[in-house]
Amino acid sequence: SCTKELRSTAVSIILYVSMFAVVILTLCGNLIVIISISHLKQLHTPTNLLVLSLAVADLLVGVFVMPFDMVKLIESCWVFGNLFCSFRNVFGFLLTSVSISSLIFIAIDRYFAVFYPFLYSSKITLNIALFCIVLSWLSSLCYNLSLFYFNGNSNDENLNTCLGDCFMLINSTWGIIDLLVTFILPCSVMIILYAKIFVAAKKQAHAINSIKQILSMDKRRNKISKKSERKAAKTLGIVVFVFLFCWVPYYLCVLIEEEMHTSSGVLYFLGFIVYLNSAMNPIIYALFYPWFKKSVKLIITLRICNPDSSLISL
């Protein structure tokens, strides 16, 4: 059986309260995004549909994965049985893949919006966004089914060596493939696209600043231009930093592991950090939008329950 780590009651309560708060943050944040975009017709845009898909995946992570991993981390043992362990592994891998692919599509969408603004409205339609969402879920499903089937975990006798544990063995070949597909490739795409967007934002800020100087505008507006430039840098920096913060420690630990599995406590904890990306995504992709704060007020005050609330202008 797995070795249960002994903790005082006070420490256990603090851990449970802290992780429970993380789960609630994940559920509430993504639920607000889902309700807002689904209900308010003004928010039915291609970009917001991609954000909606991301929020659905992150919400399911908060429902089916994070609470059980939280108990496993605190109790040091998996107490939910082998069947639910398999269910957790399938859902965990699938939903994180959907979340990552959604982040990539959002980056691509923003890239086209910045670099091809006149073609964006005609080329990036709701149908295109829906196609990208379906592609995201189907490709993630196919990839993870292939991972589970060809990796050969079902025939691995080592899975039952420790009663009370829940992990998935990944052979070296699939470990490299998974590293490329779920980390190196998405990370590279996001950094490249957001770097180009940031450069374009700086050029636009400098262009606006030059025009204002030509027109002899006051110094206050010049400061506003520089402030917008810093805000763009800060927002894009947060997007990339949070993604790297959640994923880099996990894969670094995987790379230095002698065997690629998630049975160790350290690796299991880093896996939970990966799921924290699901809690941060609604903050990054929704909290920076003005409509998010207004939607929160509509939901809290129950104005969203009015018959004509779907037509409210934000």
Question: What can you tell me about this protein's structure?
Answer:
- The protein has a single domain (9-149, 165-311), classed as Rhodopsin 7-helix transmembrane proteins (Rhopdopsin 7-helix transmembrane proteins), CATH 1.20.1070.
- It has helices at residues 9-39, 46-64, 66-75, 81-115, 117-123, 126-151, 172-214, 219-256, 265-286, 290-300.
- By secondary structure, it is mainly alpha-helical.
- The protein contains ten helices and no strands.
- Helix content is 77%, strand content 0%.
- Mean pLDDT is 79; it is low at 154-161 and 258-263.
How much beta, percentage-wise? under 5%
Approximate helicity band: over 70%
Indicate the CATH architecture. Answer: Up-down Bundle
How many distinct folded domains?
1
pLDDT average, as an integer? Answer: 79
The CATH class is identified as: Mainly Alpha
CATH H-level name... which superfamily? Rhodopsin 7-helix transmembrane proteins
Global outline:
globular
Major β-sheet annotation: none
Number of strands: 0
Class computed from helices, strands and strand pairing: mainly alpha
- In whole angstroms, the N-to-C terminal distance is 56 Å
Order of helices and strands: HHHHHHHHHH
Count of separate DSSP helical elements? 10
Radius of gyration: 22 Å
Organism: Lepisosteus oculatus
GO cellular component, one term: plasma membrane
Membrane topology: Multi-pass membrane protein
GO molecular function: G protein-coupled receptor activity
